[in-house]
Amino acid sequence: MISYKVNTYLSYIVISIPILLITGPFLPDLALSLSGLIFFYFLLTNKKINTFNNLFSKLFLFFTLILIINSIYSGNEKSIISSLGYIRFLLFIFLVVYILKHQAIDLKLNLFYSMLFCTLFLLLEFFSQAIFGITLLGRPVNNPTRLVLSSFYHEEILSSYLVRFYPLLIGLYFICKKKLNLFFKLSFFLLSFSVIFVVIYNGERTSLGLLCLSLFLMIIFSKQKYITKIIIFASITILTITLLLNLPNFSIDRKLSGFQSIKNTIVNVKKNTEKSKIVIISDKYNSMYRTSYNIYKENKLFGVGIKNFRVVCGEEKYAFNKRSCSTHPHNLFLQIMAETGLVGIFYYFLIIFSIIFFFIKNLVNKKIDDDKKNYLTCLFITIFISVFPFFPSGNFFNNWLSIFIFFPVGFLLKEILTNDYNKIA
After folding, report:
1. Computed from CA positions of residues 9, 173, 24, 41, in that sequence, does the dihedral angle turn out positive or negative?
2. 171 pLDDT higher than 70
């Protein structure tokens, strides 16, 4: 259907997305959108539009339609544009599935190399910022407790990038390790432990929590010998303790303040029988969370439309207090609840239950080898930590974060189709 040459070009676009994410949201979103549109063009010209005649596509399209209608009703132009653009993720997901089925190049191996390069580059950024206070290109870093992503994107999300792709990088190692020489294997292990070092040092609490969750799930559910798991766990524990004993004060204080916030929330729950008196994490987060719930109560079925929290959070009937407003509620589940209502909540739980269902199917599947199971386990974890509801989060409908969420879905969907777990496509 798609020529070998075009397939190759599209493959390299997919491989480039982790690199482009380092530059900010525009270039990776442009690459994702253009590749999806090119794929859709070839589907139309070859009369293969029935590619989307499956349960996954129908559910995705229905949810997108709900977002569009709700955004039109809200009258917010940004919301309308964002909801219309959501279709690009469906196109990209099936592009990845197609490329994996008709490989012009080894997509997984080359993606592994791409992500290994990104990890190395960001580690160099980290050391430049931590030691010299500047990015690799010489831009000053103002906040030593929150290092920026790169010289190209001056946002304090270095740890977030590393953590969200960390399970995927490990999964690609398992599926590609027989094709790797000794240099790349050693580089992978060195960079893997370096990621743990960077995240602990950087002190970003949500990323640290997601890293711990990822490591816990990978150690527990990976198909490795028990002695290997013990060695990995002991190595990580020793590294963590060593780092904590030698961290700068600002990094330790940041982590302790995070644990103290969680402790205070638990104490508040125990002491106060009245829900209104319970402070969740901090006054700021508590205000936004309660405002989100107030918005949901008044718009239960469809919410107020994506990217509309920022528009309505200041209204008297929603606002919990003067600290209620932000661009988003800083919690993924509460944002879905406020902006998409019960429809969005249904889809959210459908995603969670689907991940758990297929994850269990993978664990008990005796037809695939251990490396393939480990690869699939890491894919599940990559998606799971991006939709995990119990940590503060970024904007779910933000372009940059949405790419992290949807990027691994095509890889997982292809494996689900191959293993024929059900008739999802």
Report:
1. positive
2. yes
